[in-house]
Structure formats: C-alpha cells, structure tokens
Design brief:
This protein is an alpha+beta fold and 668 residues long. It has 20 helices and 18 strands. Helix 6 runs antiparallel to helix 7 and helix 8 runs antiparallel to helix 9. Bound molecules: adenosine-5'-diphosphate.
C-alpha cells in the first residue's frame, strides 16, 4: 500500500520514536503522579487514623478523670452530709478551703442556709422579702415632717423616739432624724444621726440592716454638701463590705444597694467582675435551695449544670433527711481543680476539650470547627452531665505532618525529573543510533554508486577494445588513458575506504617524517591539475613564504587530505571557477587553505560535515556524488598530526574555504 508522502515523512524514524518516548514518559509521569497522590492520600488516612486513636484515648482519660473527680467530690459531700451537727461546720469549712474562687459549698438545714467559704454568697437565696411595714410609732412625727412641713418639730419628735431601748425603733427614729435634718439643710447633725445608727449594731430598718441603710444615706448627705471625694471613699468601702457578704440580704435588697452604691463608687469594674462570678454562685445556691425545698422529687444525689451570666455552673448535691449539702462550681474552679490531669493529656495529644450541656450550650472550651477529627462522649455513655468533645487542636490539614508531605512531594518531583531525564537521554541515544544507521545505509548506497559508474565505463571500453572494434590508434590510446584514469580513481577510492576502515578500527597510525610541506603541496596540486580535465576550473597555488618551516608528518596522508579538499572544491563548484590553494605560516603553525567559489556551507552544517557519513543538504539536493567520509578523513589526519581543520563560508552560493592548520616541527 502506498503511504501518502506526508504521512511517510512523519512515520520516518526518528521522529516517531521521539513521539513514542514522549508518550512513554508522559504515561510514566502520570502513573508516578497518580501513585504519589495515592500515597499521600494513604499517608493522610493513616495520620488521620493515628490522630483519631489519640483523640479517643484522650477522651477516655478526660472522661475517667472527670468521673473520678466527681465521684470523689460526691463522696466528700455525702461524708459532710452525714456528720453530726456539732462537727459539721468545721468539716464544711475545711473542705471549702479546697474550692476554687468561683465555687462554694452550700448547706441547707431546717435552721437556715450556710455557705462556705464565708461571704461567697452575694445574697441569701433563702431570705424572703421583709414586709415593708411602716411602724406606727413614727406616724405623728412623719405627719409633722411631710404634711405640716415643720422640720424642727419633726426633728424634736424623732430625737425623742430615738431614746428607747428597742434598737430597731432607735435606728428607725435616727434614720428619719437624719432625713429631716438633711432636708432642712443641717448636714452636720444629719451625719451625726447616721453615725449614731452605725453604733447601734444589728438593727433592722424596713427589713434592711440599719448600718447599711445609714451608711448609704450618709453618701447622699455628703454629696449634697459637695464632699464628693468623701462620698466616693464611703461608697468604695461600703461596696467592698456589700460584696464581701457582710450582711445577709435578700436578692432584691442586695440589687437595690448594689445599684445605689455602685453609682457613687469608683470600684465599679472590680464590683462587676466579682458580681459576674458570685452571682453565678448565688444563682447556683438558689437552684440548690429549690432542690432542698422540693423534697419529694429531688434525688438523694444529683449533678446538674446551670447557666447564669457568670458562665456554666455545676451543681452537685447530697441529700440527707436533715440537710442538703451542695457544691456550686464555676468554670475557673473546674479548670483549675478538675481538669488538671485532663489538660496535661490534652496538651500531649495536641487536642482541646469542649464541654457542652445537654442542649449543646458550651460550658468549657470553644466548639471545634466542623471537619476536624474528634472523639465524643455523650452523657449517656459517660454518665457525666456533659457532652465531652476532644478535638484535634491542629488546623485540620495538620493530620499529615507538613514535613512528611513536603518530603513525599520532593521525592516524587525527583522521581519525575529522573524519568524525564532518562527518557530524554534514551530518546536522544536511540535517535542518534537511528540516524547513524540511516547514514550508514546511505553510505553503502553511495559507495556502490561510486564504484558502479567507473566500472561500467571501464567494462564498455574494455569490451570495445577486446572485440577489436576500435581501429584508430589515437582513439585506442585515448581509451587506454581513460581506463587508466578510471582505475586510478577506483584505486584511490579503495585506498580511501581502507584508510577509513582502519580509522574506524583505530588502527590508523601516521608516520612522523620531516616534511617539506611546500613541495608536497606543489606535487599534489600538479597531480590534481593533471587529472582535472573539465576546463571549467583553474587551480591556483600561492605560497606566501618561499621557504616554509618544516613539519613532521605522514606524506601520503597529508597529500590525501589536500587532495580530498581539492576534489571537494571542484565537486561543489558546479559553475566552475577558480580554486586557490594558499599555504602560509604563523608563529607555530602552517595553514593550508583551499578556497573555492562554489555552493558554500550553511552555518548549521559547518560542524557536522566533518562527521563520518554526513553529507550536506545542498550537496544531496544537487545530486553530487559522494560518500560522506572525505572530510571525516581530513579531520582525522589533521588531528592525528596535532592540528585542526575548519571551514569558513559566506553562505550558500558564495564559496567556502577549508583550512588545515598543522603545528611546526619542534626543531625548525
Ligand atoms: P562527500 O563529499 O563525499 O559528500 P565529504 O566528507 O567530503 O563527503 O563532505 C561532506 C559534505 O561537506 C559534503 O557532502 C558537502 O555537503 C560539504 N562540502 C565539502 N566540501 C565542500 C565545499 N568545498 N563546498 C561546499 N560544500 C562542501
């Protein structure tokens, strides 16, 4: 089947081999890439599994340690709950010392509520609101004060009423005296009246401790007297006492005085932060009180989480017949007392903890971002009041360590580079071999051709001569000389091929005889001229120096080299013209330049034409006969003599100059 020329051209080696190599390389690279990707995936899965196993183990430790802590605490509570009444207080106080800053132990008994450490409850959850009864003793005086506006008379009446053994009445009278004195502008005496209340001690005015009421009222007097700094100092110390739990107040009384005094005090920020924590404790205590009061449905032992403004508070309680002992523990207590062991484990596993209540509200830590590996323990599994989540603290990509991934990618990159390099090198080697094979087969064809032409003409001539068909002597002589020339050409051809074979086998050695180069070249040129019979070419020899320095070398080989250059000069000057042979000498070398006016040599072929079997494109296109070994031989001879050969050409059609440089003999 006939292939279309374009296709045949494409299929010709080595291009299709290059394509095959490129295909192989691409397949290999793709396979490598895929394998690498799989490997990375696998590594990531493994790392993921490792992380998950670590997280599971950490979650187990956290669960166990929290269970341990809770059980311990509950045992302690039950121990306290079962104590005889006389040692109860001491035991509770002792235990309370182990609690964190936002925790308290609360004890409910029929006698009332007690909290440990003392003063940690901002208000008493058990304290009901005092009935705001207006004592009737003050009615007459108050009429004088408010309806008749007789402040002096009212003051006198209050003073009188203050002279009594009943502390509550005395405090009530003094408080009203202070009020009326202030309203009538007698600030000094008003302050004295309030000071007198403070000295009474524990009296109640309208359900509130009299000294708290008096100290608070005093602030307003100071303020209206312009004694702002004094008022602020008073407010500061009063607020401190209020927050330290100096008085047992109901929640609403506490809130009222907190607002009243807080507005005048400079300790607002401190008070706010204490309030945040302690109101949580108080709210927890309130929740415990509900459990204490609701006797029927409250289990003996309990664990619950309550959410208040101060955060999530844990309630633990133990109930006895007579009492309920409970703990209210906030986030700080939790982190500093109950999570210590867990934190160490979490840190080691590069994990973080999140605790949420049954409704998913965060109690501790931050909720881990979705997608991160985690271990979860639900309340049903752990019997703890929280959902425990232990999640990787890394970024999510961190499951496969960065340096491992980098190493893997680097190894893959190296492997890919190697594949590329090997493929490239192999394809180059193969295409070079293929080219050499092609050149070799071209060479065989060319050699056969070289032989066939002279042999054919010789055979014809000999046939004519042997059959006696040529009768003319002159004609016969001419035929003989043609026969001789052709057989000499064949001889030279064979000699050349034999030399080439020896050169290939590295068995060609050159003699080192002292030579007179000018006479050698003159002889070669003369012999060449004698053979040259086309009449279109002239060969001009010009020796710049009469006497050239001596050269050591192989006469025959050097002669053949010059002959080859002359032969090429004629062959590649199809239009005819002058061939010049210039022999000149430099300091250490002698140059033999053969210049023609022929087809010239292209830039891209200037190096390659000295390789064996390589023929120029233009030469082949023009159908010039040749085997492609002539210049390879010239190069071998020049280099074998320690010299070199180069070509210079202005380009195609503008002639070329081949120059052999030979080193001058040492002795000359
Ligand atoms: P051949 O002449 O048998 O092809 P050579 O080795 O002598 O082999 O030359 C190699 C090639 O160099 C030639 O095919 C030709 O293209 C180029 N060449 C040699 N001599 C000349 C020249 N004088 N002018 C132009 N091209 C030349």
């Amino acid at each position: 089947m006939l292939l279309r020329p374009a296709l045949r051209q494409w299929l010709r080696p080595p291009r299709n081999y290059v394509v095959a190599f490129a295909g192989t390389a691409l397949t290999l690279l793709a396979t490598l890439g895929w394998l690498g990707w799989r490997l990375l995936e696998q590594e990531r899965d493994l790392a993921d599994q490792r992380t998950r196993a670590q997280l599971e183990a950490a979650a187990d430790v956290v669960t166990a340690s929290l269970t341990g802590r809770l059980t311990e605490t509950e045992a302690e509570l039950s121990h306290i709950a079962s104590m005889p009444a006389d040692s109860l207080d001491a035991a509770a106080g002792r235990y309370a010392r182990t609690l964190g800053a936002d925790a308290a132990l609360v004890l409910f008994a029929p006698a009332g509520i007690r909290s440990y450490p003392a003063g940690r409850l901002l208000y008493d959850p058990d304290q009901g609101e005092a009935p705001d009864r207006q004592p009737t003793v003050f009615e007459a005086a108050e009429r004088l004060e408010f309806q008749q506006r007789d402040h002096a008379a009212a003051a006198a009446r209050y003073r009188e009423l203050a002279r009594t053994g009943n502390p509550d009445q005395r405090a009530g009278a003094l408080l009203r005296l202070g009020r009326v004195l202030r309203r009538s502008g007698q600030l000094g005496p008003a302050l004295s009246a309030y000071a007198a209340i403070e000295r009474i001690g524990s009296a109640l005015v309208a359900g509130a401790p009299a000294d708290l009421v008096a100290r608070s009222a005093r602030l307003a007097v100071l303020e209206s007297g312009g004694r702002i700094a004094e008022s602020r100092r008073g407010a500061d110390s009063l607020l401190t006492d209020l927050y330290r739990g100096r008085w047992r107040l109901s929640r609403s009384t506490f809130e009222f005085y907190r607002a009243e005094i807080g507005a005048r005090s400079a300790k607002g920020t401190w008070a706010d932060s204490v309030y945040r924590v302690r109101s949580g404790i108080a709210a927890g205590a309130e929740a415990l009180r509900d459990r204490w009061l609701d006797d029927a449905s409250t289990p003996r032992t309990g664990r619950r989480v309550v959410l208040v403004s101060g955060g999530a508070f844990l309630l633990l309680w133990q109930k006895d017949i007579e009492r309920l002992v409970g703990i209210v523990a906030g986030p700080a207590h939790f982190a500093s007392k109950w999570l210590v062991e867990s934190n160490a484990v979490l840190q080691r596993s590069d994990a973080r903890l999140h605790l949420a209540d049954g409704d998913g509200v965060t109690l501790h830590g931050a909720s881990p971002p979705t997608g991160l590996p985690r271990a979860v323990r639900t309340p049903a599994e752990s019997h703890l009041p929280w959902t425990i989540q232990v999640a990787s603290a890394g970024t999510g990509q961190g499951v496969l360590r960065g340096d491992q991934a980098r190493l893997l990618v680097a190894a893959l990159a190296v492997a890919m580079a190697l594949v590329l390099f090997v493929t490239y090198a192999a394809s180059r080697a193969v295409s070079r071999e293929l080219r050499a094979a092609r050149l070799q087969s071209d060479f065989v064809a060319a050699v056969s051709h070289e032989f066939r032409t002279p042999l054919t003409s010789m055979r014809q001539l000999m046939e004519m001569l042997s059959t006696g068909r040529v009768t003319d002597d002159a004609q016969r002589d001419k035929y003989y000389s043609v026969l001789q020339r052709e057989s000499e050409r064949l001889h030279r051809l064979v000699e050349g091929l034999l030399d080439f074979a020896r050169m290939e086998a590295k068995a060609l050695e050159y003699r080192r005889d002292p030579l007179d180069l000018s006479s050698l070249i003159a002889e070669v040129v003369a012999a060449f001229r004698a053979e040259l019979q086309d009449g279109r070419h002239t060969v001009v020899l010009s020796a710049k120096e009469d006497k050239l320095p001596g050269v050591n070398g192989d006469r025959e080989a050097l002669g053949r080299a010059v002959w080859n250059l002359l032969d090429n000069a004629i062959k590649y000057s199809p239009e005819g013209g002058e061939v010049r042979v210039d022999v000149s000498n430099g300091a250490r070398s002698i140059s033999i330049a053969v210049r023609d006016q022929g087809i010239g040599v292209g830039d891209n072929e200037r190096e390659r034409i000295f390789d064996k079997f390589v023929r120029g494109r233009e030469a082949v296109r023009r159908g010039a006969k040749g085997t492609g070994i002539g210049l390879a031989m010239v190069k071998h001879i020049a280099e074998g003599h320690g010299g070199s050969v180069v070509v210079r050409s202005e380009g195609f059609g503008r002639g070329s100059t081949f120059t052999i440089d030979l080193p001058v003999a040492e002795s000359s």
